[in-house]
Design goal:
Helices cover 29% and strands 18% of the residues. The protein is an alpha/beta fold. It has one domain: CBS-domain. The strands form 2 sheets. Strands 1-8-7-6 form a 4-stranded mixed sheet. The radius of gyration is 20 Å and the shape is globular.
Length: 197
């Protein structure tokens, strides 16, 4: 039996209307919230990607526009070649590379300073079902990193796919605390103390 659908009421857009951005009003979480609640799920939010041959300054502008601090470096087949972060671009890497090669900063490409795929460590999505936000924070702190990639097996069961990204700054916003990832936390008590600051 066919259902009757009635049109919804349409309204004029107000003159000062703005568009919403993901993460603008982050949902509050706790240390014992499910780890998956703070993961950026790339099945729902498009990955921020860049070509390996792009200039690093273009990568920086793209990060600013997207409001992200990490780009996946991928090819035309969406194969992940590596990643590049805002720290890579704004830190010492470009300066050292330019000095070693005797080139100008404008000549530096993403591939020159990215972290290549072979050096990336990832978390497996299957291991996160019972993990909590505190586990993710401990992982980021232990590694001294701002981000962690999460992979899952593709539909064919044999191809690894980047499924999500954890961001220390995003988790900090959702927890309402600062997270320091350069210090290595050894115990859950130290993590709790860091979250309590």
């Amino acid at each position: 039996m066919a259902r009757d659908y009635h049109p919804l009421t349409a309204h004029r857009l107000q003159s000062a209307a703005r568009h919403h951005q993901p993460g603008q009003d982050p949902e509050r979480v706790r240390v014992d919230s499910p780890a998956l609640s703070v993961m950026t799920d790339l099945r729902q939010i498009p990955a921020a990607t860049i070509d390996a041959d792009a200039p690093v300054d273009a990568a920086n502008r793209f990060m600013i526009r997207r409001g992200v601090r990490l780009l996946l470096v991928s090819d035309d087949d969406r194969q992940v070649l590596g990643l590049i972060t805002s720290n890579d671009i704004l830190g010492e890497k470009p300066v050292q590379f330019a000095l070693e090669r005797g080139i100008k900063r404008q000549e530096i490409r993403v591939r020159d300073i990215m972290t290549p795929r072979e050096r990336l460590e990832v978390l497996h999505y299957a291991d996160l079902g019972h993990a909590e936000v505190g586990h993710v924070v401990a992982t980021l702190q232990h590694a001294g990193r701002q981000h962690a990639l999460v992979t899952d097996m593709g539909a064919d069961g044999s191809t690894e796919t980047v499924r999500g990204i954890y961001s220390a700054s995003q988790i900090a916003r959702q927890l309402g605390v600062a997270i320091q990832t350069t210090e290595v936390a050894q115990t859950f008590a130290e993590i709790g103390a860091a979250l309590g600051r």
